[in-house]
Amino acid sequence: MAALFPSSALNTGVRKREVFGWAMYDFANSGYTTVVITAVFAAYFVGGIAKGAPWGPFAWTVALSISYAIVMFTMPAIGAWADLRAAKKRLLAITTVGCVIGTAALALSPRFSGATGVAVAMLLIVVSNTFYSYGESLTGAFLPELATPEGMGKVSGWGWAFGYVGGMLALGLCLAYVLWSQARGLPASHFVPVTMLITAAIYGTAACATFALLPERAKPSAQALGEAKAPGAWQQLRSTFRQARAYRDFMTLLACTVCYQGGVAVAITLAAIYAEQVIGFVASETMVLIFVLNIAAALGAFGFGYVQDRIGHKTSLAVTLVAWIAVCVIAALVTTKSGFWWAAAIAGLAMGSSQSAGRAMTGYFAPPAQMAEFFGLWSFATRLASIVGPLAYGAVTWLTAGNQRIAILSTAVLFVAGLLLLWPIDVRRGREAALRGQG
User: Fold this and answer.
1) Whether the Cβ atoms of residue 19 and residue 143 lie closer than 8 Å to each other
2) Residues 393, 273: contact at Cβ < 8 Å?
3) What is the pLDDT of residues 24-66, one digit of tens each?
4) Which residue, 35, 59, 270, 411, has fewest beta-carbon neighbours within 10 Å?
5) CB atoms within 10 A of CB 116
6) What does the alpha-carbon distance between residue 413 and residue 95 come to, in Å, rounded to a whole number?
7) What is the pLDDT of residues 155-167, one digit of tens each?
8) CA–CA distance, 128 with 191 (Å, rounded to integer)
């Protein structure tokens, strides 16, 4: 563990076991995005529950957008409450239980049919994805407590890399069960529920390592102890929005995040649907594709974590955005499975590195006394992106009578916009503003 987590990247007093525990949460929750949102349930929702209707991708993105909207409008207040009361770990435990139960409940979806089945599946996705998103933001707020400013890229990369390993474990076990079921002629309505239970079990079990090893280092605010819970959080939230506008580079980064994360959200939520409905993959082939994509993403997150600390977060993120533009163009043009594999491989490398770089930059620009709160604003931006990107994709698909090639090509516009917004960011100025506690 010493070689994996060098002490030079960690803050004074932080033990390597704490970083391992923190990274294990990425390991735990990545099975949810990999199996539920990307590889298995997404395609089953459109092909099985919605019966392949042209509105299927749009309905799927609507369900996700509702959950992201809930998080977008509530997470900054939750972050403020966590900062004031040093309650990140407590809230993380609650959100973890919520997502695990919601994921297991998805196993009930095939029991319903028609409009009822669509409504139940959408409701369960809203519930499970809301809790997942809360947890993602809360665990990100621990990063600046663990890593030095110079080591944030490395530590963030470790977390994302661990996450993709966890995603591969969950997907690998699910793939084994799917292949076993298909060999016996069992339908998707049989094996999809079991994959949901497998994912929920891995999430809950692996997260135990986080709660056993990761301490709450923050201290409660004396102000918070004397205030009512809700008014204190909302008062702090309003103050944060006013203050954040003075952090020029942080706010520009949030705008950049909305754009490029919107494109990343398209890849995460619609890759399996595109592979099966446009390129012609079957369920087991799609799962293998996503499994390999996770390997590439893990390598990208881990390797680029070291690269970005050398060449800078901004340059690293710019490189990945160029790669994403290439992915969109290739995916829109190829007609063969082998050609789509190239797009998926590039997407995997770009996905891990872009997400790691964005999280590290957020921690670099956030004032030390308001980490969870500013990560709440980052969560606001990523959730807005997760609404804009997939919903636009679904709408374009519906309006073009199911032409997903036009939809994926239009996604490249989001990455171009992100690249243009990244250009004026001054990393040194943004860090100095954070350390001064003023814009």
Assistant:
1) no
2) no
3) 999 999 999 999 998 899 989 988 999 888 888 889 989 999 9
4) 59
5) 10
6) 34
7) 877 787 788 889 8
8) 20
